[in-house]
Amino acid sequence: MLTSQQDLRAQPYTTSEIDALERWVRAGGGLLVLGGRPGDAAAAADWSLNALLARFDAACTELAEPTPAGNVARLRLGDDWTVLATGDNDGPVRARRAFGQGYVQILESQAVINIRGEDTDEEKAAKRALLTETITALAAGSEPVGGSGRLPAAGGVGIFPELAKRAGNVIVYYAANQPANVRELIDRDLEPAAAQVVKWLPTVMADEPYAIVLCGGGGGGWAINPRPKAAAVIEYQPLSILGVFGHEMAHTLTGPGNDEGQIAGNIPIGNQGEAHAGWFQGKLAALFSGETDVANRNANTYTRDEEKAGRQLDLATEYETAGARENFGYGTQWTKMWYIWQKLDDRYGPTWYPRWYWVRSTRWADEPGHRETFDEMVETMSIAVGEDLFPFFNALGTSGLRERLPEATFQGQTLTLPVAPLDLSPAGPVNLEPIGDYRQPVTPR
Ligand SMILES: [Zn+2]
Asked: What's the whole-model pTM score?
């Protein structure tokens, strides 16, 4: 058994989990604990990982020991432990003991066994050797269990937490160590949050429930697009959980297809890409926090601060250039995209967004795999809002675009497109209104 906790805010080990681990080691199991560093003596005393280690007469102290893997915790160990490694201050950082019929080992850090791409061959060999020695020692006296070494996987989630709550067409998987405020969120908010995202972006959902997997720890999440579709969320605070959940769910939502139910055409930035996911993350966060002026995480950075890279970005090239790849993850291009979308929400209301998806699938019905150029993307957007958005995009400094699109053909009809009177002033607050019929033209405010 391997358990790991480096984050003091992490969900605690419950007493029943600690009891189960202790019983299991006593009966002959091997337990490997990856330690972490509590900041001070009080944190060390309160830390749930130390409640687990106390059963085996050990603790991670607040004292730092410099090692090749960085500063790690000096261990406090009872007499039954054998020290396997020490830090530069001679304090123990790695140790093993027999316990009942089993064994327990504490490793100072995952870094000493986790092979990384940049490791030299010697480093890789040393990590493999340490892992092999560790597993062999912890499993001493046990029969190999046989079978495949692969983790189970269902739709992209390897391991589901043990508790489940079904609410409407959403099923939330979580563990018993989630705190009360997260339990409350599960009981009260997740189902309406999921329903709300689909209301903003109508998508044909599968018959089986949409799965939400609440993981331990903090730091983001991921989207699972194969069925059963799911969002895995790794956050502590209820509002962050909701925001990340909205983000990951949006990654799995195609939006409305054309009238045959088919999804057709791709935008250069990804129909279900990061800008799209972050847009709904911002809406959901605004809805549940009531803070609608932090528009999609400061979309207005675009106009408020000339120095921000967001203002300088040329969206037409941003997604194509090598520099964009280096900057990918800083998200300035998303910020600029959210500013644009917020300006469109201001003028047309939120229906323009699902309408844009419907228009695209309708426009490219005969060529479903079509990848739009930036020019074509702005054409499709212009058709969706019924006004010519090219002057706006040009004013934003987007290169290589046509100057005007006075007319466009859509569903065999010629549309006249007046210039959209959008200026570069700050965008308004997050628009949380319900959407209307996205098949009908939108009316500018
Ligand atoms: Zn994402």
From this structure: 0.76
